[in-house]
Amino acid sequence: MEIEQLEKVASQVRRDIVRMVHGCQSGHPGGSLGCTELLVALYFERMKLKENDGKVVFDMNGKDEDLFFLSNGHISPVWYSVLARKGYFPVSELATFRKLDSRLQGHPTTHEHLEGIRIASGSLGQGLSVALGAATAKKLNNDKGTVYVLMGDGEQQEGQVWEAATFAPHHQVDNLVAFIDLNGQQIDGPTVKVMNNRDLGAKYEAFGWEVINIEEGNDMAAVVKGLYEAKGRLGHGRPIMVLLHTGMGYGVDFMMGSHKWHGVAPNDEQLAAALAQLDETLGDY
């Protein structure tokens, strides 16, 4: 896709996010809005997906295709929207988000058999370990697919992350690209005040990772360029860590930059104000 087309998809995804969270008066809009460019670029531009007659096909094994794992599962709205807009399941199903008997739970789960979901996530700190397992399996099976995983910056305070960070370079898991959403916010406040992560790039480099910075994580062209750079560095004995500098709540002016929109739903007036800033490009569900 051209950058302009990807930006149109991103605008619609942001509309989906605020409408989904408003519809059930529950969920996490801030981080979802901030990671929109990344997930749109991955699914609509970068990832090799299994298709049949031009339509995506999902199976749990993920053989001979790229895989994505969402470790910070609370930002499920952006993932659900991207999956639906890519054709994994009907866009109309977005209206069931977080409702009783819905397959679209607040944190992704597998027992609802929602296409695109391979693990239950949202218990923070676990996603990097899972992605390492999948990437290692691909290497053992001579599968050329790439494994991607997204974590939050607050999530770096979990100890399991650093066990996985040690494992990956030691075992030369060089078909893995991990992302950290560096929005500087978590549920209780700015990360520098809750528990300062300090220089995450230096930490991962010390652990043996190759580190890439995407300074403009909400600029589609910059994100796409960064993804191609990450892909080009694979296969040389080191995993790739991408530090994605984003804005919490990006795209909706009154949500931007504040931890207060980590897990709060907009009211009717706020929804209207948000939608007025986001073009409807693919049609609302």
Compact description:
With 285 residues, the protein is of the alpha/beta class.
Blueprint of the fold:
Blueprint: H1 3-24, H2 29-34, H3 36-46, E1 51-52, E2 55-56, E3 67-70, H4 76-86, H5 127-140, E4 147-152, H6 159-170, E5 176-182, E6 185-186, E7 189-190, H7 191-194, H8 200-207, E8 210-214, H9 220-232, E9 240-245, H10 268-275
Parallel strand pairs: 3-4, 4-5, 5-9, 8-9
Antiparallel strand pairs: 1-2, 6-7
Helix pairs in contact: 1-3, 1-4, 1-10, 3-4, 3-9, 5-6
Order of helices and strands: HHHEEEHHEHEEEHHEHEH
- Can you count the beta strands? 9
Structural class: alpha/beta
Number of continuous helical runs: 10
Average residue-wise pLDDT: 97
Percent strand: 5-15%
Assembly of the depicted chains: single chain
Shape descriptor reads: globular
CATH class: Alpha Beta
Question: Between the first and last Cα atoms, what is the distance in angstroms?
Answer: 22 Å
Radius of gyration, taken over Cα atoms and rounded to an integer in Å: 18 Å
By CATH, the topology is: Rossmann fold
**How many discrete domains?**
1
Could you state the CATH homologous superfamily? Thiamin diphosphate (ThDP)-binding fold, Pyr/PP domains
| Main sheet attributes: strand count, strand direction, barrel closure | 5 strands, parallel
- Walk across the major sheet and give the strand order: 3-4-5-9-8
Protein name: Transketolase
InterPro entries: THDP-binding, Transketolase_N
Organism: Dyadobacter soli
Domain Transketolase N-terminal: 8-274
